[in-house]
């Protein structure tokens, strides 16, 4: 189904001008000046004269009706200062004193904002000050975001996708970099749900790749992107890389993000306890690599639960976005069992771990939101293999009764049905194409669940792949799919994908649009509120 792209509702969207435009137009960071197709190391130059600089832009994360996190990175030690205002003139600005940015966090920092007005546009500017002389400050960096509405009638609209800089396709200046980010920014959503594979730490880039038709893809390459990431600094460089793209920085200055991780933040198809058999790695213990990656992930994304200490530090969380929407962010990586053929008749660990599954059930039961989006970094009924024998996701290709990780999902789906939890919708990425699956008990081997939808989008800036096979255990019916006909198709040959969710404040209806680069709508589905299953 093809529909024209609706214009953003001007009565609830602020036209961004002046200071934000100037901030978003930051040039490529000077720490990454291109030299002969390769970019020099991007570590902060502490010895530079002058004032602190924030060439990596700003971003906000996990914005609610009253709170959010503001992020920035300095080029040297600096004190972070944030001002917020209802107007671009910054009259009656409120000041927030942030942390001291230093080498312990790779000169990144976040400042929590609390007590914000609900359903309003918030303008902010971040100033970096010399810690030894507060009068020596850098140029302010500007951004804006909307807080979640306190009232249902305002509605909510957000985008989702994932899979960035994968399969050898990085920032290509010849085509304008990550163009899909500019498409998304022009839609001016309330927020962006980044569904994992935010970087490809195991995917080195080379300066150029010749495509099948003879054209040449040219990558911007940094030192850290020239090899697989192993050290903490190399992981930091992976997350820093995407901020070299002007589209990303401009998008971040305008649209808040809810972010989760999957495998490529560490290494392809990893699981806890894995010991690598990969000659590219000197460090073979995946748990060591994952610890370094999650530290860098928390430094480069504003995630409130990653600011916690010890066992409270986690990726999975609930972001409550007003009366219409709760977003349940899953971590299908950190607590899973080892990848296997997935034929176990008893599996309490599964893909979420027992504790996270209990948490999800509890939070779904507590939710009073009209819609409950389950943000899954891996799909449910799509068969995602790991080699020739093992399974990477949930479905293992056997269309019979649940086995292996399917047992945990069956338990969750049964719980949703029997507790009569309404308005659940699953969103995911990971497989590098876009599709819509409707899960129906009538055609399933396991029948004790209410019908539900799973929508897939991505990649946002990576290689495209053919559609995965479906597993009949939960009765998926593929209603729509668009995918390449061969593996690892470059972004110059196949469009990138992202999805849009639009919740109407009057009717409560949720509309999903699967979009392709250029803002073309490929498929639309409207769901009614207040139902257990759709």
UniProtKB/TrEMBL annotation:
A Pfam family per the record: PhoD_N
InterPro entries registered for this protein in UniProt: Metallo-depent_PP-like, PhoD-like_MPP, PhoD-like_sf, PhoD_N, Phospholipid_Metab_Enz, TAT_signal
Entries under SUPFAM superfamilies matching the protein: Metallo-dependent phosphatases (SSF56300)
Keyword list, A-Z: Signal
Domain of life: Bacteria
Transmembrane region(s): none
UniProt signal peptide: 1-32
Residue span, PhoD-like phosphatase metallophosphatase domain: 164-514
Chain ranges of the Phospholipase D N-terminal domain: 57-147
Database matches in PANTHER family: PHOD-LIKE PHOSPHATASE METALLOPHOSPHATASE DOMAIN-CONTAINING PROTEIN (PTHR43606:SF1), PHOSPHATASE, PUTATIVE (AFU_ORTHOLOGUE AFUA_6G08710)-RELATED (PTHR43606)
Name of the protein in question: Alkaline phosphatase
Classification of source organism: Bacteria, Bacillati, Actinomycetota, Actinomycetes, Kitasatosporales
